[in-house]
Amino acid sequence: MSNAAKARPTLRDRLNIRERIRDRDTAVYGILIIVAVLFPLVTVYATGGTALVSHATRAGYWVLLAIGLNVVVGFAGLLDLGYAAFFAIGAYTYALLASPQLASSPAHHAVHINFWILIFGSMLMAALFGAILGFPTLRLRGDYLAIVTLGFGEIVPQLFYNFDQWTGGINAVGLIDQPLLPAWIQGPWSGDGDFKIVSPFSFNTDPVAFYVLVCFLIAIAVILVTNLYRSRLGRAWMAIREDEVAAAAMGINTVTTKLLAFGIGASFSGFAGAYYAADVALVSPDNFLFIVSITVLVMVVLGGMGNITGVIVGALVMYYLVFYLIPGLPENATSLASSIGLGSLNQSSGDWPGLGEETQRLNFIIYGGILVGMMLLRPQGLLPSRVREQELKHAAVLEEASAVEEGARA
Amino acid sequence: MALLELEGIDAFYGRIQALRSVSIRVEKGEVVALIGSNGAGKTTTLRTISGLMHPRSGSIRFEDREITQTGPSKIVELGISQSPEGRRLFARMTVIDNLFMGAYTRSDRAGITSDMERVFKLFPRLQERRSQIAGTLSGGEQQMLAMGRALMARPKLMMLDEPSLGLAPILIETIFSIVREINSQGTTVLLVEQNAHKALEVANRAYVLETGVVVQQGSGQELLASEEVQKAYLGM
Q1: Triad B216, B217, B219: Cα angle to 5°
Q2: Mapping DSSP to helix (H, G, I), strand (E, B) and coil, where does residue A352 land?
Q3: CB under 8 Å to B123, separation ≥6 — which residues?
Q4: Which of A57, A140, A189, B11 could make an S-S bridge to B55, C-beta 3.0–4.6 Å?
């Protein structure tokens, strides 16, 4: 570094993005870990039940999906509107190979493979289908790719629906095996000893078990994706996102690189799918419709495309909004009206269906309004990758720098 | 043996013919310029060399090796890199990351580091701004980065597409003196320019393209003195 730059480190440091990103990410991860540890303790203590922990286990697979889609959309810049298809493939891989389902199929044999093996099997299966879809389509660009993935997302649930002799079709796959902890994993959580954090720690009855599992899976996913992001491949994805022709001119094989983004992104939703199937224990084609793909995409965009901590936070916020806040609105509105003496609003009369019912009807408008509002207020996402902010701040910093230079001269 | 040899290249965009039987030679150690007005086929020539598009007929040989149908990533590995038209930096990546992208096909870390130092020696501005987002650099700095990125591939042949485009006269001087320096360090340079005067000053030899056809060729000095070139491109 030249002497001039050393002389005024503050200005240069403000332009040193890598370190600043690392700082903020460390803080966000710290907060997330603390919240993740405290969440079950506090909610179980406060509510005396595990309903909120159940919610958190479901939020967990959305987080996994968002992390995976971020690889495709955020890192490589490929708009994938059929991401739920890979989620479905992962979920069905686990559901079929770890349930009685195949006994009533032409195979006449139930298969029960261990969760810990099959979760990687689901990952591979989703990655494989990601590659199969990607191979013929990734020569397409932008909008065209989006349309093809949209079609794929529509086809896959239909296939699971129509291959009913294997998948049970509309009847869904049920009685899916729960994960088992190996017997040697003993600790305060197992058995009925006096000292127990949560007891009994069993996947059959306890959402806390799934909560711990999904936190563990998210941690693995974050570590994998962070390393990918910093790798040579991660840089190649970024380059393709920025300028595909220039990337090709640098010697990047754009087709292979995009294929890898598709396959790797899909593999995370396979991961999430296996977990989902085990958690819910019932998998039907209806769980993987277009709305799932869109919700995950919204999580990624709203959280801050390309930024891992951003999409995690985005997924959590969106989950809270879509599956907790908005479904609870009618009831909350009703009780609020009664408590402030407007109980009459809750009665239906004429065209007025009652406040609860009316709020119910307005759910999607409220949801849409919140989305539009958030995008207006923070178009770059809740926690954007710093690069974007940098661009905006850059002009101001440079101005300051030249002012300092002039001051030094004077 | 010429380092690069194009023979009878015909290239099309759809049904529109952009190059008609273009033949060009670049000898090792030379600076060769392609000059001509807008749409003459200069950039198309570079695109066919770098494998971003393939000619319909004709052959391209690099170090006596047929590369007519070779893909762009292989061509970078063989030793041809370019600073493309309009620079095409990775706008939201840092200066350093852009330079690393230039070395994408290489895996020799020590070599990459020493080339990075070399680029920083050629372009001290880039070192000062190494953690800055490329899109926020000034035009001159962006051109420097595009050239530095092309150098990071440690090319035998570096192709520069309009390095002077949109730059202030003083910066154009700097850029061309750096082109000379790069060439004197042993890299062969193929230069595409609309700024014919500057290009011909730097070039050992040059080709004049007009609507996809090579209409004139010769040493830089010869073309500078040629009446047609003076009239058409130097505004004399």
Answers
A1: 140
A2: strand
A3: B144, B145, B147, B148, B178
A4: B11
The CATH 3.40.50.300 portion of chain B extends over 24-52+71-79+155-236
- Which residues in chain B have their CB less than 8 angstroms from residue A77's CB? none
Q: Between β-strands B188-193 and B157-161, what pairing exists: parallel, antiparallel or unpaired?
A: parallel
Suggest the residue from A229, A250, A258 to mutate for an interface test with chain B (most B CBs closer than 10 A): A250
Q: State whether B91 and A17 contact (CB < 8 Å).
A: no
Helix (H, G, I), strand (E, B) or coil at B6: strand
Alpha helices in A187-280 (DSSP H): 207-230, 232-242, 244-249, 254-280
**Is-contact A72 A127, C-beta < 8 A?**
no
CATH of B24-52+71-79+155-236, one of 3.30.70.640, 3.30.930.10, 3.50.7.10, 3.40.50.300: 3.40.50.300
CB contact under 8 A, A18 and B135: no
Q: Are A102 and A111 in contact (CB under 8 A)?
A: yes
How far apart are the CA of A348 and the nearest CA of chain B, in angstroms? Answer: 56
pTM recorded for the entire structure:
0.83
| Chain B nearest-CA residue for A255 | B73
* Cβ within 8 Å, pair A17-B131: yes
Q: Give the separation between CA B216 and CA B207, rounded to whole angstroms.
A: 6
ipTM of the complex: 0.87
DSSP annotation of A283: B
User: Residue B128 and residue A5: Cβ atoms within 8 Å?
Assistant: yes
Among chain B residues, CA nearest to A232: B104
Q: What is the pLDDT of residues A317-362, one digit of tens each?
A: 999 999 988 888 888 888 888 888 787 778 777 788 888 888 888 8
Compute the average pLDDT of residues B101-121. Answer: 91
Burial class (CB in 10 A: 0-12, 13-18, 19+), A311: buried
CA angle A97/A101/A106 to nearest 5° reads 95
Amino acid at position B162, single letter: E
